[in-house]
Amino acid sequence: MIDKKGVDMSKYIIKKNDGSIYEVDSLSTFCKEVGITERLLRYTNPLLKGKKGRYQEWHKGYKICSNEEIKEWKREKEKEREERIEEGTDYITKEYLRQKKVIQRLRDENNALRSIERKEYRSEEEFESWKKNMFDLIRGSREEVWMDFAETEREEEKLAGEEGKKNIGFLVLSDWHIGKTVSLDGNRFDFEEARKRLTRLSVNVIKYLKLYNISTLHIILLGDFIHAQHRRDMKSSAQYVEIESGIYCFHLIREFIESFRFSLNDIVISGVVGNESRFESNDFHTNINNVAKNSIDYMIYEMLKTNFEKIPEVTFNINGFNLFENVIHINNNFNILAIHGDKIKHNQLDNEISKLKLKIFNERREYIDYVVLGHIHSTFITDKYARNASLVGADEYASRGLNIPESYVSQLFGVVKDKDIHLFSIRLDK
To answer: Which CATH code, of 3.90.1280.20, 2.40.50.140, 3.60.21.10, 3.90.226.10, is assigned to 121-427?
Structure first.
């Protein structure tokens, strides 16, 4: 609906002479962005027809839409929405059938495992001891997660044997917050402690590379690698200024990647930016890619690309056109979506992840098999998505700001074979 000044009461609907339609919140802002005069654009209001010296049909190829044009535009939008819903329904159906097969496979594996338990472990004490040892081997720690991906000995031999040549590994790195200091009774953190924890991570990853016979590793960078200082409390816990933290962090990641070079044939580095490393600190949720580029995370990624550009076994998958979402093609059958996690509701993760998968399908016609994210500093693993923890561990922000009772120091490691994923968290503070 257009008022007497030609202004849509909810949105401004502007048409360009090439047929494009713009739905904008601010007429003044829109005119500045496209380089036209707001006053002259208002003269294109259809309600001014017949008024001498006021009305003009176009201003530099733009005009305010009539009610009839708005109605037609809304009909086209509704038609497109219905088409997207129809396409999305087809995707959901296929995803349901795939998940149904996964559930049946898990049921079969569970039945087989129970049979093994009955035959080989007669006493409750023996079984509990076996289970503890297996969990420790697979996880590399005693951290409790929401889903256990513990394998039977037979399955582990299969993954690590001759067929294991098809295994592809991926490592999720996020929320390092280099430059931050923590001095709690249960957690001490600074640059030197970060280096020690990364050394533990490197040792564990190399162990898993050998165990699962992995020759290709995807390193997925999810951002928030430095400690931001947007607030007074952030400045008080800072070891370095932000740029200095970024330089130190670059050297840490470079050294970390270098530790795998002689254990692998291929290293693929993918990344998205976090929210805290952006200089536009008052606009965390913007979708403007130039804002994403104006961040320490992006600077670190570009420095890494330059550092490894002459090393053929290291390649980069950093999407300069979208630094908020990155689809990683692990193999021909398995796609992982990487996001930082600041743009979604973590108390509604199942619903948010489903909407995200559908959005990616509508935009790119790509099926997403798994989603990895960070941001909250707390491990959460399911069969559809996994949330990474942090390198810094528990601090006042995690315990008081986010109400997280325990924030473990850990990073995620996974193994993909065809369409199967085996994922666990590597604990680093012990």
So the answer is: 3.60.21.10
Look up the CATH number of domain 12-65.
1.10.10
From first to last of the 430 residues of the chain, give the pLDDT tens digit.
344 444 444 577 888 888 888 888 788 888 988 888 888 888 888 888 877 667 888 888 898 888 888 888 888 888 887 877 776 666 666 676 777 777 777 777 666 666 655 554 444 555 455 445 444 443 443 333 333 333 334 445 555 554 555 799 999 999 999 988 888 877 889 999 999 999 999 999 999 999 999 999 999 999 999 887 655 555 556 667 788 888 999 999 999 999 998 889 999 999 999 887 776 655 545 556 666 778 889 999 999 999 999 999 999 988 656 788 999 999 888 999 999 998 888 888 999 999 999 988 888 888 999 999 999 888 999 989 999 999 998 766 555 555 554 567 999 999 998 888 999 899 997 6
Locate the domains of the chain by residue range.
Answer: 12-65, 121-427
| Residue reference for tokens 């093994």 | 116
